[in-house]
Amino acid sequence: MPSLGKIARRTFLIGSAAIAGGVAFGVYAAQRPFANPNLDDLPKGSASFNPWVIIDSDKITLIATHADKGQGIFSAQAAMIAEELDVDLDQVEISFGVPDKAYYNRAAIDVMAGFPMYDNSPTAETVRGFLGGIVKLALPLMATGGSSAVPDSYDKLRQAGATARETLKLAASQQSGVPVEQLKTERGAVILPDGSEIAYTALAGAAAGITPMADIPLRDPKQWRILGKPMERADMVEKSTGTLTYGIDFRTEGMLHATIKVNPRQGGAMVGFDASEAEGMPGVKKIVEITGGVAVIADNTWRAIQAAEAIEFDWGEAPYPAEQDAHWELLSNTFTDAHLNAEARVEGDVEAAEGEEVVGEYRSPYIAHAPLEPLNATILVGENRVDIWTGHQIQQYVEQFVAEITGVDQENVHLHNMFIGGSFGHRLEFDFVKQAAEIANQMRGTPIQMTYSREEDFAHDFPRHITMGRGVAKVKDGKVTALDIQIAGQSVMRSQMGRMGMSLPGPDAQLHEGAWDAPNFNLPNLRVRSYRTEALAPVSSWRAVGAGPNVFIYETLLDEAIHKAGADPLAERIRLMGHEPSVKVLEAVGEMCSWTGPNIGEGRGRGVAYGFSFGVPVATIVEVTATDAGIKLDKAWVAADVGKVIDPVNLENLAQGGTIFGLGHAINCEITYADGMAEQTNYHDHEGMRLYQCPEIAFRPLEIGTKIRGFGEPPIPPSAPALGNAIFAATGQRIREMPFYKHIDFV
Amino acid sequence: MKFTVNGTEHEVSVEDDMPLLWVLRDELNITGPKYGCGIAQCGACTVMLDGQAVRSCQVTADELEGTEVTTIEGLGTPDALHAVQAAWVEHQVAQCGYCQSGQIMQAAALLDMNDDPSDEDIDQVMSGNLCRCGTYPRIRAAVKTAAKTLQEA
User: Fold this and answer.
1) What confidence category does residue A12 fall into, taking pLDDT thresholds of 50, 70 and 90?
2) Which of B15, B25, B94 is facing A282, going by the closest CB pair?
3) How far is A483 from chain B, CA to nearest CA, in Å?
4) Sheet arrangement for strand B2-5
C-alpha cells in the first residue's frame, strides 16, 4: 500500500474523499514544528528564533516567503512580524528566504475543504483541521495563491515576532540581571528600567544560546502600532524609482539571453524546423531544441527574439478543437448526466416551485493572464549546483522540476525568488521554468536568462477556462422563489494539476465555486449543478478562478429574476441573504451610494451584484451613463468583509485594482482559437482596462467575520455582473456574454 | 553611435534597427525602462528623448546620435525623489509596479508641458500606459498631487 505521503503528493485529497479514505495520522506528528531552515548556515553570533526572524550583530532580517506579484504581501508579512517583535520596518531587511517546507501554507487548503468558507460549524472546522494535518505531513507546500497568504501568515508571523521578542528579553535579563518582567521592548531594543537600551543586534550572540520561547500570547489588536493603520509598503520607493530588480532585470557575469518558440497549438508537436537563416544572425550564440520547440540563445534579448522570428516551423495539430465555435458547441453538449461534475447545492425543489419563469444562457470566454512582466527565468547549471532567479508562487516545485531536468540533486537546486511584475495566476505555471532549465542544461556553466516575447506569452498562456451557464429562475408575488443553475466548463484544476503530474479524483469545486456557496438562505428553492469536460484548450487558474464566471452567471440570472418580479435589486438581494456579514456588505454598499434604485434618470443606471469567494463577501454597485458614443462607466462602490484589516491603504488599492481588473476584462477581453492558435497576440487586441475607461471607485472594508481573509481575488467576481446589471438599468439591454463590447459600444 | 543617458555619454555599436529599449536594457544594463509589449501598446518602456516622452521600443538606434535620454533612474533617486515619484509614494500607487517606471515618465512629461492638467488631460495623456493591476485611480490622484507640488516649487 502506498504511503500517505505518496498518495497525497500525487493525488489531491479533497474534503470527503480524504475522510472516506480513512487516512489517519498522529496528532503529535501534525503538531510538531518543522526544523528552522535558517539554522543550517547560520554564522556564529547570529540568532534565528524561528524560520522568520534572523538577528546578527549588524542587522535584523525578517523572512517574508510568500511570493509578491503586486498584492503587497512582502510588506504585510514583515509588518506582522514587526508588530510583535517591536521593530519598525525602516530598521529591518526583508528577504524572500529560501524554499523550505517550514514555510508551508496552512490556509490554502481551506478553500478546498468541501464546505462553504462561511461555514464555521464543528464538522467543517474538523475537516479543515484534518486536511491541514494531511497537508503538513504529506504535502507541506510553500505556495502563494487562493487569496490565502494573509490568513496563512496572520497568526504564525505575529507568533514568530512575539517568540523572538520574548527570547531577546530573556537574553537581556540574563545579561543585565534585571528580571524579565521589568523589561520592555521598543524599536529594536530591550529597554531596562533605568531607561538604558540594549539593541537586539547586541543580544544576538547571547540569544543564540537560548532555546526560543514558545506559546507567547499575542497582543490585542487595540494595542497595535503598525497593523490596521495606513502603511508605506516596503517596496514602494523602489517601485517608484525603477530600482527594484524584477526577475527580468536580474543580471550576472557572463549571462546570455534566450527566447523560445513552442507550438502555438498548445501541446501540439514540433514536426520540424529550419533555423539556417537564424543561425547567422547578429549576436546568436546557439539554437537548441527544447520540449515542443526551439530556443535561441544570443547576447541580447532583442537579437534572440529577432532570430526566433526568422526560424521556420512545421507545427503539428492541436490536441483540441481547432476553431472557437467548436469549443462552444462542445461545451453546449456537456449539460448531460455523463458529464455531471457535481450536484453541488439542493435546497427545496426548484422544479416543483411555482412562479413565472425567467430563462437565460450565459457565456464567459477564455481570457489571458498577460501580466505586464513577460514570463522569464534565469538559470545557471553549474557543477552539482543549480541557481534559479525567477518569481514563482510554488517555490519547491520549481526546484523539483529543475532538479529532474538537470539531474542535479534537489537539495543543490536553489531558487532565489524575485519580485513579480504581475501574475493573475500565470506564475503558478511551470513551463517557462522548465524551458529555461532545458536551455541552461544545454549551456552548462553559462547563466541563461530566458524571456518570452509578448507574442509568445499570449500564444503560450493557459487562459481562464470558458464557461457556459444555463439558468431558470422563478418569481411569484414580487419575490424570487427559485434559482436553478447549471454550469458547464473545463476542470481548471485537472488541467493545471495534470501539468504538475498530479491527478484530481472526484469533482472540481471550482466549476461551481461562487454559485453553490451563495448564502441566499432565504431563497426556498436553489439548485446548482456543474458539468465538466477536459476536451478543450489547456487552462489555468485565472484570478478568482471559478468564482469569476460563476458569479457572473448567478448574479445576472438573479438580476433578471428580480426585474421580472418587480422588486428592488438591492432590497431583494438583502431579503434573500441569510448570512449576516453578507447582509451588512450589501447594506454598506447601498449606503455608500445612497441607493434609490437602479434607474436614476438621464440615461444613467446602477447595477448591483454580490459575490462570495475565498471567504469574503463582496458587494459592488456600478453606475453607468448611456451616451451617444456608448456606455460610460461613472462610478463604482465596493464593500467587503475581510474579518480584519492589515493595511487600509493597500486594501483599498486591491479593491480598486481588482474591480478594474474584473470590469476591464468583462468589457474588452477574450482569447479565441483559430487553426488551433490563440488569435489574440498582444495588448492591442486584449488590453484590459485603460485609464480613460476607469470609473471612480469607493471602498469600505468591514471587520465582522471571525476569520481574517485575503483580498487579492474577491473583488473580481461581482464586478462584471454589477456592470452588466447597470447597463440593463441604463439601456434595457441585457448582456449575457462576456466580453460585453461584442454586444454594446463603450466610450 | 554616441548619445547621453541620464547625463552620462555612451557609445554603442549595434544594428541600426535595434530599439532603444534593448540598447538600454541589454547593452547598457539600465533596467528601469521595462519590456512589456514591444509594439507601443503598454508604455512600460517610456523614457524621455530630448525632453519628449517616447516609447523606447519604437525608437531605433540609428535615431540616437547626439540625443539625450532620461530614464526613470535619471528622473530621481530613492534619496532624492522627483515630485512625481514623491507623489507616487505618497499615494501608494504601485501594486506589481512593473508599469510604473513608464507611468511616472509619462506623467513627468505631461507636467513639463502642462503644469495644471485637467481630468481630461490626464485621461488622454496617461491612457497609453497600461496598468494590468488597475492602479488608475491612484495614478490620477498622484498626478494631481505632483502638479500641485511643482506649481508651488
Assistant:
1) very low
2) B15
3) 34
4) B8-11, B2-5, B68-70, B46-49, B52-55
Domains in chain B, start-ordered, CATH in brackets? 2-75 (3.10.20.30), 83-152 (1.10.150.120)
The reported pTM is 0.95
Residue A5 predicted with pLDDT over 60: no
Mean pLDDT along residues A442-460: 98
Which residues in A lie closer than 8 A to residue B45 (C-beta atoms)?
none
CB A85 within 8 A of CB A49: no
Q: State the sign of the Cα–Cα–Cα–Cα dihedral A157, A159, A162, A168.
A: negative
Closest chain B residue to the Cα of A256, Cα to Cα: B26
In this complex, which of A233, A240, A374 lies closest to B100 when CB atoms are compared? Answer: A240
Neighboring chain A residues of B26 at a CB cutoff of 8 Å: 257, 299-302
Residue A377, SS3 per DSSP: strand
CA distances to A320, A574, A696, B137 from A693, rounded to whole Å, are 35, 30, 10, 11
Complex ipTM > 0.95: yes
Residue of A nearest to B71 (CA): A242
CA of B66 vs chain A CAs: smallest distance (Å) = 23
Helix axes A431-441, A395-406, angle to 10 degrees: 30
> CB A657 to CB B95 under 8 A?
yes
Query: What integer pLDDT is reported at residue A134 of this predicted model?
Result: 72
For residue range B144-153, what is the model confidence (pLDDT) as tens digits? 999 999 999 8
pLDDT score for A452: 98
In Å, how far is B125's CA from the nearest CA of chain A? 9
Q: What pLDDT shows up at residue A6?
A: 47
Alpha-carbon gap: B42 to the closest alpha carbon of chain A (Å): 7
For A291-344, what is each residue's pLDDT tens digit? 999 999 999 999 999 999 999 999 999 999 999 999 999 999 999 999 999 999
> Which residues, at least 6 apart from A533, have a Cβ–Cβ distance to it below 8 Å?
A330, A331, A334, A339, A488, A489, A490, A491
Which residue from A295, A287, A291, A296 is spatially nearest to A270, judged by alpha carbons?
A: A291
Judge whether residue A8 has pLDDT over 50: no
Whether residues A421 and B34 touch (CB distance < 8 A) is answered with yes
CA distance A433 to A379: 9
Model confidence pLDDT, tens digit, residues B28-74: 999 999 999 999 999 999 999 999 999 999 999 999 999 999 999 99
The minimal CB distance from A70 to the residues B44, B122, B133 is found for B133
- What is the average pLDDT score of chain A? 93
State the alpha helices, DSSP H only, in A315-389.
324-332
Could you tell me if A200 and A170 are in contact, meaning their C-beta atoms sit under 8 angstroms apart? no
The pLDDT value recorded for residue A11 is 46
Fill in the DSSP letter of residue A716: H
Looking up cell 538600454 gives B24
Distance separating alpha carbons of residues A303 and A290, to the nearest angstrom = 19
Chain A hits for B38, CB-CB cut-off 8 Å, are 305, 453-454, 682
How large is the C-alpha radius of gyration of chain A?
27
Which tens digit of pLDDT belongs to each residue from A562-601?
A: 999 999 999 999 999 989 999 999 999 999 999 999 999 8
C-alpha cell, B64:
540616437
Distances (CA, A) of A615 to A343, A612, A642: 21, 7, 8
Residue A445 distance to chain B (closest CA, Å): 20
- Which pLDDT tens digit goes with each residue over A165-183? 999 999 999 999 999 999 9
Report DSSP state, residue A168. Answer: H
Give A692's contacts in chain B (Cβ within 8 Å). 123-124, 127
Chain A residues close to B85, C-beta within 8 Å: 240-241
Domains of chain A with bracketed CATH: 33-105+141-229 (3.30.365.10), 254-318+373-459 (3.30.365.10), 324-366+462-742 (3.30.365.10)
